[in-house]
Amino acid sequence: MAFGTQDDTDDVMNEINMTPLVDVMLVLLIIFIITVPVMKHSVNIDLPRASNEAQNIKPETIRLTVDAQGVYYFNETKVEDADLPSRLQAAAAQTPQPELHIRGDKAVRYEKVAQAMAAAQQAGLRKIGFITEPIN
After folding, report:
1. How many other CB atoms are found less than 10 A from the CB of residue 1?
2. How far apart are CA 133 and CA 117, in angstroms?
3. 26 has which bridge partners?
4. How far is Cα 92 from Cα 88, in angstroms, rounded to an integer?
5. How far apart (Å, rounded) are the C-alpha atoms in residues 64 and 43?
6. Are the beta carbons of 107 and 70 closer than 8 angstroms?
7. Is the pLDDT of residue 22 over 80?
8. Are 74 and 62 in contact, with CB atoms under 8 Å apart?
9. In this predicted model, what pLDDT tens digit does every residue of 104-129 receive, in sequence order?
10. 64 close to 100: Cβ distance less than 8 angstroms
11. Which is nearest to 70 in space by CA: 61, 78, 59?
12. Is 72 helix (H, G, I), strand (E, B) or coil?
């Protein structure tokens, strides 16, 4: 059972069906007609300018050095054993709290470094680091 007439030949259709294209273009035209007036009818105001960069406030770094004789140096300044806890408490009260870098001579007794760590902990310092030399 054949559809069509006998006169039909198997020729390739060389015309483009424009109906779907016209339908899509009309829908886009209607969308643009509706949205453009909405964008134009806004209240003109002068907005303030602000940067969105985060402010990186780097905390101060305190260098606590213990030399070979067991003498403390607070930021390269010699400090007596009795004055060290008060200096550390003053540093712990700063905002943002500074980091404490302990540099102990390899010939110093471990007791002196442990006393410095205990004084820093009692003062309330939370960031304590040890400075060492890399192995060559």
Report:
1. 2
2. 19
3. none
4. 6
5. 60
6. no
7. yes
8. yes
9. 999 999 999 999 999 999 999 999 99
10. yes
11. 78
12. strand
Residue with tokens 């969308």: 31
> What confidence category does residue 33 fall into, taking pLDDT thresholds of 50, 70 and 90?
confident
Average pLDDT, the chain: 85
Half-sphere exposure of 36 (CA within 13 A, CB side): 6
The answer for residues whose C-beta is within 8 angstroms of residue 47's C-beta and 6 or more apart is none
Q: Which of 60, 53, 54, 64 is nearest to 96 (CA)?
A: 60
> 46-55, 60-69, 79-88: which range is least confident on average?
46-55
Sign of the alpha-carbon dihedral angle for 82, 87, 93, 99: negative
Rounded to 10°, the helix 84-92/110-123 angle is 40
